[in-house]
Design brief:
8-stranded mixed beta sheet; single chain; globular; Alpha/beta knot; alpha/beta; about 20% strand; 9 helices
């Protein structure tokens, strides 16, 4: 019998984001990240993938991408891409994301931040995975861009996921690579669950 699984949402924070000088900025949307993270999120059953950016021109870019793949020629040309991008939403800020989830789920999500650094509220992949598969909860995983998620959000989150580590001291993954690893570690079903 399949274990219960929490609802999992994902947000790519182009805003607020830190720059090299640790100032809060809005980073530019990268269409490749939009596509690749949407495909990964759809593969692992993420309920909705939000791209957060308050800049009007950037939101229009996301709108054009969504329209092309959900209603335009792309919807006929590549139905798999249409399915992946059907879970994508463009919003102005993190509060919009939380409001939308509350509207759909009737309760607030637990915030899970990601970082290459360690924080006091860090949680291992295995512990968070057990929570996701062991309860009927709601989790919002936040992915940072630029030089990371501002400390205020990190400290206010319910959990900060342990950093993705490779086999060397080098640690500079693209956000789409990190998203793929994170979702696989957290949401991959065990082999016996897939057979059930």
């Amino acid at each position: 019998m399949k274990r219960p699984r929490s609802s999992v949402y994902l947000a790519l924070l182009n805003y607020p984001s830190l720059n090299k000088e640790k100032k809060i900025v809005s980073t530019s949307i990268t269409p490749l990240s939009v596509h690749d993270i949407a495909r990964c999120a759809a593969t692992y059953g993420v309920k909705r993938y939000y791209v957060v950016n308050p800049v009007t021109a950037q939101k229009k870019l996301i709108g054009r991408i969504i329209e092309y793949w959900n209603e335009g020629f792309g919807s006929i040309y590549n139905r798999n891409r249409k399915k992946a991008l059907s879970i994508l939403s463009a919003v102005s800020d993190l509060e919009d994301v939380i409001r939308d989830i509350k509207k759909n789920e009737k309760r607030e999500p637990k915030l899970v931040t990601t970082s290459a650094k360690r924080f006091a509220n860090s949680i291992s992949f295995e512990t968070l995975r057990q929570k996701i598969f062991g309860e009927n909860g709601i989790y919002l995983i936040l992915l940072g861009t630029g030089w990371g998620i501002p400390d205020e959000i990190m400290m206010e989150s319910d959990y900060t996921l342990d950093a993705v580590r490779g086999t060397t001291g080098f640690n500079h993954l693209s956000v789409r690579s990190a998203a793929s690893i994170i979702l696989d570690r957290l949401l991959q079903e065990e082999k016996d669950e897939r057979r059930a």
